[in-house]
Design brief:
By secondary structure, the protein is of the alpha+beta class. The protein has 15 helices and five strands.
């Protein structure tokens, strides 16, 4: 089975999430919440990570972390592994505690960071566990809003400074924007990179260099251009054929996808690709002969 693309870079901000196996509850009482946060603080220190936001839900958690080295996988393996061993011993059980590997999304800019921060601390409200984010004790919201002193590992300055202070942060979170905004959909769709197309395309090399059996197709196609941007010729002809060939070979769209977009039969696209490829090969041969003369 193809595995999610893992992007590891220094000086990068990630939204990280892990869920309990089969969606089981992994934080059952105050002691378990406190134990996880203690271990989180140790891992952040050991691996030189900064934490800008967090929220522990009954069956999963969210973190907003920043790396200084390309070691996110090692850090999360340590955090999830140590907590899982402790949790299994406490409950006298064996087996997986977490559902697969953790998820990590690269964030592009301050706007994305702020939007994800708000998304994280509003989790308990969206899940109807509390009416306000301040009512949930197991997130960074109270400390970020200045209602209490935060845990030692929490970095509050970056988010506050971007917004203009703790009161501005409260107002920002209190806007309670529609959870179906672009960032919310990106998180729920488990996109590996949250940013514009140019930024996202910069990470395509991670997928292109990986084995096709190891990385899902959507991760190998990060940032590819939309068909509407590629197929711009108004009428059928040589230019349209060249654009179809480019969409198929360079942007890696399947022939059936191009056919559906243009509203034509699959065989029409197949012939267009063959024509454009033949013309391109003929042009290459002419250039070679010219160089030899």
């Amino acid at each position: 089975m193809a595995r999610p693309l893992r992007i590891q870079q220094p000086d990068t901000i990630y939204h990280v999430m892990a869920r309990g196996n089969a969606r089981m509850r992994v934080f059952c009482d105050d002691d378990e919440h406190a134990r996880f946060l203690d271990q989180l603080g140790d891992v952040l220190a050991d691996y030189c990570l900064a934490c800008h936001s967090y929220c522990l839900m009954p069956n999963h958690y969210h973190l907003l972390v920043e790396t200084t080295e390309p070691n996110l996988s090692d850090a999360m393996r340590a955090l999830n592994g140590e907590y899982a061993q402790w949790w299994n011993r406490r409950h006298a059980r064996v087996g997986h505690v977490w559902q697969g590997r953790f998820k990590a999304q690269v964030l592009q800019d301050p706007a994305s960071v702020l939007a994800v921060c708000r998304y994280i601390v509003l989790n308990p409200v969206r899940s109807r566990l509390v009416d306000r984010p301040s009512d949930w004790p197991w997130s960074s919201h109270r400390a970020m809003s200045g209602e209490c002193r935060g845990l030692a590992f929490l970095i509050v300055d970056r988010i506050r400074q971007q917004l203009g202070g703790s009161r501005a942060y409260q107002a920002f979170v209190g806007e309670l924007v529609d959870v179906d905004d672009v960032v919310g959909r990106s998180i729920r769709d488990d996109l590996r990179v949250i940013g514009d197309r140019e930024f996202t395309a910069g990470f395509r090399v991670f997928g292109e260099q990986a084995d096709r059996t190891e990385v899902p197709e959507r991760d190998r196609l990060l940032g590819r251009r939309l068909l509407a941007e590629v197929l711009r010729a108004p009428d059928p002809g040589e230019e349209r054929d060249r654009q179809i060939l480019h969409a198929h070979r360079a942007e890696r769209y399947r022939l059936c996808e191009i056919a559906d977009f243009l509203g034509v039969h699959y065989s029409t696209i197949s012939r267009a690709v063959a024509r454009a490829a033949s013309d391109g090969d003929a042009g290459h041969r002419r250039r070679v002969r010219h160089c030899k003369t």
